Structures are given as C-alpha cells and as structure tokens.
Amino acid sequence: MEDEHGPGGSGHEHQHEHEHEHEHGGPPSLRRRLATALRGHSHDPGGHVDTALQTSRAGMRALWVSVLALGATGLAQAAVVLFTGSVALLSDTLHNLGDALTAVPLAVAFWLGRRPRNDRYTYGYGRSEDLAGVVIVLVVAASAVAAGWESARRLLSPQPVSHVWAVALAGLVGFAGNELVARHRVRVGRRIGSAALVADGLHARTDGFTSLAVVVGAAGEAAGLTWADPAVGLLITLAILVVLREATRDVYRRLMDAVDPELVARVIASLADTAGVEEVGDVRLRWIGHALRAECEITVRDTLTVAAGHAIAHEAEHRLLHDIGRLTSAIVHANPTGEQHHELTAHHNDDPGAQH
Predict the structure, then answer these.
(1) How far is CA 282 from the centre of its chain?
(2) How far apart are CA 257 and CA 273, in angstroms?
(3) Residue 318 has pLDDT above 80, yes or no
C-alpha cells in the first residue's frame, strides 16, 4: 500500500509550518508562531507549493541583497584604485564585482525551481540549484587560482603603492561588505535548505579574507616591506582552498543524494512511534533543491484490512511531515508481517545497499 503526501500526489496536502535553521531542525521563530496562530492549521492543497515559492522568493531576496552589497563595495573600491594604483586592490575590486555576478546562476536556479513538474521532469526542477552550486564551486576554484597567480607575480615583481591609508580603508570596506553578504547568504541558505546558496555564502567569506590581505599588504607597504602583500596573498589562497574543499564536499553530497544520518534516524524514530507500525524497513531520503523527499517502508499486521493498513501508512506520512523540517513529500509503503509476500519481485530488488 502506498500513498503520496506531497505536490501532485493523491493524498491530502499538508501546509508545513515548521521552519528550521539547519538540517537537524529547530524551534519555529516567534514571527512564524504568530503567523501559524493567525492562519490556523491548513490542509490547503496548495500548501506545499506555497512553501516552495516562499523559500525560492527568500533565496531570490538574498541574491538581490548580495548583488547590491557587493556592487556597492566594488564601486567604492574602484574609486580608490583610480588614484592609488594598487594592483592588489584592483584584483580585489574585480573579484568583488565578479562575485556579484555569481548570483546569476543561483537566480536562474531559483527561477527554474518554481516551474511545475511535468512528464519529463517528474520530480520538478529543484536540482537546478545543485547545478548552480557546481558553477559556484568552479568560480571559487578560479578565484583561488587567480589569487595565487597574482600573489606570486607580485612577489617576484613588487610595485609601489601610493595613498596606503586609502588602500587599507578600501580593504576593510571589502571585508565588511563580503562578511555581511556571507552571513546573509549562509543564514538564508540554511533556513531554506539551499546548499548552493550556502556555498555562495562561503565563497563571499573567502573574498572577505582576500580583502583583509589588501589591508595587511598596505600595512607592510607602509613599513617598507614590499613582499608582505604578496606573501599574505599566498596564505589567503590556501585559506580559499580550504573553504573550496568544504563547499565542494557539500555540493558533491547533494549531487549524490547524501543526507545527514541524524536526519534518517529522526525519520525512523517518527515512523516507529506511529501506532500500528510493527517494524520500520527501508528509509530513503533525498534533497531536490531545498525540498526534502522521503520514501519509506513499514510493516503492519497481516490480519489488518487494506483500509486499516492504508490508514496506518497515511498517519505515518502525516507524522513525518510534522516532525521533519522541509519535508514536502513522503511515500510510505506498508508491508504485511511475514516472510513470503514479495516472491514475485524479489529477484528484481537485489539491492546491496538496501536496509533490512
């Protein structure tokens, strides 16, 4: 017995009100609690679609905030470059302006994610966010190469810089702008479950450290140490590589349908606590964009009627949608107790990775 509880499914849709700050979940905000109290507990068939649109809109707002902040930061730095001739600051300025453009693949991904599923893309277009994450990782990698190359070049061929105090101030502005953007992107990305947006936030954070390298280089220039700026730039390149590794790991895990094991444990616990469930079988979770989908098996008594078994499966789905943050669709298959109920398909289901 199967019953789907999600967009386009045959079951009742459930307006999922619980928002979480990360994959492990957390208490709803005061604003969310008040909104829930005022609206009441909704079973509107459009509930899940509305939630998906809200998260996409939140992602788009985060992107536009980032574009404006990084654009303003880059323009302010560009003005300083014109009268100081700082090559390091010029590199950082171009980097910040380029980072504002990383919002483009994410914006396209969030736009695609709003499109309804169809006969070809039966799960919808949520995976476009993961593809955007790949693009962002490539941009981070390119920035690491560029930073390393420019630092090495300047180390071999130092260049004098005028108005060192202005260069240092511009570097601080770059750091502040990138850090604000990073915190905003990471916070929103974790709230809506977008690995791509989190990766982009980490990217902005590395750029903030690059801006600090400009400050350190300016201090070294003021002290007569012309090698200080490129030397620190090489160290910052290493820091970028460390963050690149983390961002690559996160995006890779999404592409490979990886989830937090603790999240799986929570699903198993929720199913096991459902009245009438004798045993929990396979549990499979996957992220589709910033929405979570579950496919599970439970065992019920073989003496139950079809309707009674269906009711237990449906109740299990309902519990999951309440207990698991950002879960928008669940399929629970109810197996009767006993060993000989799947003879016809047993040889088609030889899955070495299956749970037993």
Answers:
(1) 26
(2) 26
(3) yes
Q: Residue 279: enclosing H or E segment and its boundaries?
A: strand 279-288
Q: 207: how many CB neighbours lie within 10 A of its CB?
A: 30
Beta-carbon contacts of 8 under 8 Å, excluding residues fewer than 6 positions away, are: 117
Alpha helices in 223-305 (DSSP H): 228-255, 261-272
Please, is 281 exposed, middle or buried when counting C-beta atoms within 10 Å of its C-beta (0-12, 13-18, 19+)?
middle
User: Tokens for 115?
Assistant: 């499109």
pTM over 0.85: no
| Separation between Cα atoms, residue 43 and residue 280, nearest integer Å | 27
Distance CA 231, CA 235 (A): 7
Give the tens place of pLDDT for each residue, 184-220. Answer: 888 888 887 777 778 778 878 877 877 887 887 788 8
Bridge-based pairing of strands 4-5 and 327-336 is antiparallel
Q: What is the rounded average pLDDT of the residues 340-356?
A: 61
CB contact at 8 A, 318 and 7: no
DSSP state of 114: T
